[in-house]
Amino acid sequence: MIQTVKLLKKETVANSTMAFHWEKPAGFEFTAGQFGDITIINPRETDDEGNIRAFSFASAPYEANLVMATRMRDTAFKRVLKDLPTGTEVKLDAPYGDFKLHKTETTPAVFVIGGIGITPVRSIIAEATHEHLPHKITLLYSNKTPADAAFTEDLEGFGKENPNFTFVPVYTSVSETEWNGERGDIHAGILRKYVSNVAAPIYYLAGPGGMVKAVRHMLVETGANEDNIRTEEFSGY
Ligand SMILES: Cc1cc2nc3c(=O)[nH]c(=O)nc-3n(C[C@H](O)[C@H](O)[C@H](O)COP(=O)(O)OP(=O)(O)OC[C@H]3O[C@@H](n4cnc5c(N)ncnc54)[C@H](O)[C@@H]3O)c2cc1C
Asked: 3 alpha carbon to ligand 1 midpoint, in Å?
């Protein structure tokens, strides 16, 4: 369904990463993990890629506003998006997508996420926490540095509130003195450390296409069931 939504707030949530809060239209419903297409109306500039982009909802269905977050690269769409004054209306065509938490509560969920791929996952974990879902959920969340990772405070909060959720931040460009948690690429060793039976869970991968492909390969090599890997590839990265 296409509707018009108003920008309520914008904020920086990580290095070169902004979140946009939109007013939720009355009666609008979606499932955690879904996305919508945003069209900027009459942008002051545009390029060959046009003025529509897909963004996952980072907010959960129970939360008041619709929140989207993106890496602010230097493209016409994002230059205009960054400068939108609060109160501006855009078109939202939503909800779409099947990247949703599975229903079987006894099957664990493991999210292996890179960078901005966290958006639909924040929504899913917020909703699971709010609804007291019994699913065991593990999130391996990879970024270059802590400053590049969006929503870590929220995720730490869900970890404290939800005894079934384990949050594992992983950083690829930090030294041991800067970070005493997991470092480097997410390899089989890290996976085995947090997932006792690698064949058991349903895996969810989201983020830039190259990262999603590499993680899928690693999971299959390590013994994950290929039929139990679900992906949301963010085109355009
Ligand atoms: C289902 C789905 C959900 C998505 N959810 C999100 C989300 O929650 N958050 C999010 O940020 N994105 C999300 N995306 C991706 C989003 O729709 C855009 O494609 C993405 O943000 C890139 O837009 P852009 O304006 O930066 O680049 P575009 O102008 O769309 O440029 C795309 C092309 O130009 C190249 N390019 C442009 N700028 C650069 C640069 N600086 N460096 C290298 N290459 C460049 C890219 O390689 C690409 O081929 C989602 C996509 C899908 C399909």
From this structure: 22
Rounded to whole angstroms, the Cα distance separating 23 from 116 reads 22
Distance CA 191, CA 178 (A): 22
Domain coordinates in residue numbering, the chain = 2-96, 109-234
CATH number assigned to the domain with residue range 2-96, chosen from the 4 options 2.40.30.10, 3.30.70.2190, 3.40.1390.30, 3.30.870.10: 2.40.30.10
pTM: 0.96
Dump pLDDT digits (tens) for 199-209: 999 999 998 89
Q: Is the CB of 221 under 6 A from ligand 1?
A: no
State pLDDT tens for residues 111-142. Answer: 999 999 999 999 999 999 999 999 999 999 99
Residue 222 near ligand 1, beta carbon < 6 Å: no
d(CA 81, CA 76): 9
CATH architecture, domain 109-234: 3-Layer(aba) Sandwich (3.40)
CA angle 29, 35, 38 (to 5 degrees): 100
| CB neighbour class for 8 (10 Å; exposed up to 12, middle 13-18, buried from 19) | middle
